[in-house]
Amino acid sequence: MWAVGVTTGGSHGDAELNYPHSRPRHPGVCTMLPLLPLLLLLLPAAHGAVERVGYTPSLTKSPALEGLTTGSTFVLDQPRCVFDQYRNADIWLVVALESTAATFNNNVAPGTNESAFQNFPDSVPAYMTLNATLANYPCPKPDGDITVLRVGSETSCIRDGARPTCNGPLPGPGPYLVKFLALEGSQPVAETGWSEPIMLRTAESPNSISTMDGGHSAGMIALTTILSILFAILLAGLVAMLVFWGSDACGGSSTFSKPEAVSVRRYNTHHVYDQPAARL
Fold this sequence. Notes:
It is elongated, with a radius of gyration of 49 Å. It contains 4 helices and 9 strands. A hairpin with a 6-residue loop joins strand 1 and strand 2. A 5-stranded mixed beta sheet has the order 3-9-8-5-6, with no helix packed on it. The chain is of the alpha+beta class. Helices cover 20% and strands 16% of the residues.
C-alpha cells in the first residue's frame, strides 16, 4: 500500500515527488486494519453463543418407578444442579426425532408454530415443553423428592392449538432425542447435549408369541381347553337342574295324605266247627 517516491533530475536539482495517498499512516492504524474483518465475524457469534453444559439427559434409574417407557411416554431425570449460574433462565425440554434433531434451531421461540407440539413431527423437527425455573429444580434435591419428568403424559391438549407447549403423548415408537435448553427472555444462553436414542414400547404381534415359552406347551394348552369345555358342560347341567326344580316347585304342590288303616275281619269256617264230633 505504500507508493514509491519518484526522483527526477532537472535544473532545480533532485526533488522527491510524494503523492498524497502515499503518506505513512499511524502505526496503530496499520495494526488494527487486518483485525477488523475478524472482529466483525466474532461479534455476532459472541452475541448468539450458547454454553454447552456438562450434562446429558437420560432415562431415570430410580428403582421406585415402574413404566420407564410405555407406548407413548418415557421418564427422565430432572436436570438438578445443571443451570445454577443462570438464575433468571427458564429451562425448556426439547423433544425431537433422532432423524430431525440436527435441524433444530436454538433461536426458535417456545410457544410458536415453529416449536408447537401439535405440528410435530410433520412440519416441526422438535417441540419445546415442560418449561420450569430453577426454583423447580433446587440443588441439592431435598430428601424424599421424586426428581423425574414424565414426557408425554398430557392428553387434554393434543389438538389444542392454544397450548403449543403441550406435553402430549408421543406420536410413535421413536427413536427420540431430548435436551434441556435455558432461555433468558427469548435468548438461549445454555444447553445440554442430546440424549441417547430413546425407544418406546410397541405392542407385540400375536403371531410372534411362541406357545413353547415359559412352560406353556401345546399339550398344556389343549388340556386347559378340554377342562374348560367340561367345566362349561357341568355348569350348564347344574343350571338346568336348578331351573327344573324351580319350575316344579312353582307349578303346583303335591299333597301327601296319611294312608288309612286297613282292618281285616276274621272269618271262621263254619263247616269246621259245625260238624259233630262223632262224625269226625
